[in-house]
Structure formats: C-alpha cells, structure tokens
Design goal:
about 0% strand, globular
Length: about 325
Amino acid sequence: QRRYAEITGDTYFIVRSLRNFALRILRLRHDIARGWAEEARSWAPHDPWSWNTIVRIFLKQKDLARALRFVWVAWKRFPENVVARDGLAEVLKVAGRYPEAEEAFRQIIERFPEDVFARTGLAEVLKATGHYPEAEKIYRQTIERFPENVVARTGLAEVLKTAGRYLEAEEVYHQTIERFPNNVFARAGLADTLRRALRWADAETAYRESIAAGNVASATYVGLAYLLLRKGEAGRAEALSLVAEALRLNPRDSYALPLKQRLQASRTVDITAIADEWESVADELVVAPDVTEDEDGAEADLMHVGDLQFDEPPRKSAQPLTF
C-alpha cells in the first residue's frame, strides 16, 4: 500500500490501514500505535481522522495534557469538521471539564443532528454531573432515532442503574443483550445491576455469562471473585483463580492485587467480611472491557460519523507534533 500510494498519489488505503492498525494494537503497544498514527498523519495531514487517532492514543495513555493540546490544534485546523469537533468535546469530557464538554456536544448536535456520538456524549456528561432525568431523556431520544445504537441502550441502562431503578435497568440490559448477544458491555452492566440489587445468585450467573461471552476486563473477574466470597471458604479457591486471571489480564489491577494478598495471608481471614467490604467500593469499578474499537460501541460511532475526505494534495511527510 505504501508503494501504491507513492506511485499513484492515492493515499486513501494506506491512511485507512495505518489508522486501523494503530487502534487495534493500542491496548498492547502504545509506542507502535503512535508510530502508525503519525505515519497516517504524514500521508494525510489534511485528514481529521488521522489527527483524531493520535488524540485517542493520548487518551488511552491517560495523557490528558497532550490530548487537550493536540485536540485544540486539530480543532483549529478543521473548525467545521464534525470529527474534530467530536474529538474536542470527548477530550473535554474525559478531562472532567463538563460545562465546556456539554456546550461543545450541544453545538455539534445543532450543526450535525445525525451525529450519534455527540448525542451519547452529551448524555454521558449529563449523567456524570448528576442530571439523570435529562440524561435519560437524551438516551431515549437517541434510541428512538437510532434504534441500532448499542451505546445509547447501555447508556440508558447505566443511568437507570445509577439512579437505583434496578428493575428498569435490568429490563433495558436484557433487551440490549437480546438485540446484541455478543455485547460484553451490556452483559457486564447486567451483572453489576443484579449485584447492586443484592440478587447474588443471579449476579453470579450474569458474571459467568459475561466472561463466557468474551469479556476480558480484569474488573469482571474481580467482581465475580468477590461475589464468590459470600459463599465462605467454599468460594476461596475459585476466587483466587479468578483473581490470578484478573492479574494476568491487568497486572496493575488495584482491586485484584490486595484481594490476592488478603486471601493468601491467612486462613483465618473472614472472607465473608471481605465481601461486605467490597460493596463499599464496588460501584467505582469499571466492569466493561478496555477495548480500543468496538463495532457496536462508542468507538464505532466516532469512526463512522463520516469517511476520509481529501481536499488537499497528499503530502508525504510531517514531523510529529510534540508538546
């Protein structure tokens, strides 16, 4: 593809491939992902998607300072492009600058009413700021307008769950799973809802089904492990096995490591008490997988707002921006 682009000047395929490669390897190698993303931008510096890919890498690295600086540069370069605007609003949201993020998302919706990413992003900001009724309204409107959007469906369920409306949340999760049986976000959310509702047996079943469906988030294994501790000593061995798997998936899991240490420290530890302690912090745990691209998820919403548009001749080199 590089040779084809050099000979023909048609950079569409090389840029798209580099962007996709960068996003797919991002979970494992940030450095390689950054290199591929920078090469994509070097081939098409006039393409907002390439800039947005680099922003997403900074976000994955939790480097908010660079993400903010870079996304502002992209926005100034492409002020009328929906991808650049979405990127700016998303970074502001992740940075916790909710009033600015809300205003940015509302402006995008006004200018680009078919941008589902902005609609779900706005609802997420409203949820984060405790405006549950309005967030619920936005999610329901989005589902009505875009019935195949799974992010809006799981987002609605999350709002209902956070508001303590567990039966309604459970119903929405079940509807989502029926429609999208392989969506691990919905399965993990259902398990967490049942746990919050103190339906331990149903929650255990849902956690196991979530793992069987391919949920590779360490948090899901930890959640099931703590749930098994409610069985007392009968659950210790399997709980330790689940914690070991969680640490294999994420060696820095801040919940799995102390649990492993406590369970291995002494046989006199009251493991049912550990399970009770867990309830005080479990709501903070993210049970959805750490993915970089989900065909049914928010990443897909952002990636499919539009397609590559080349309005300048391709350029073959651009120095990576550093901050």
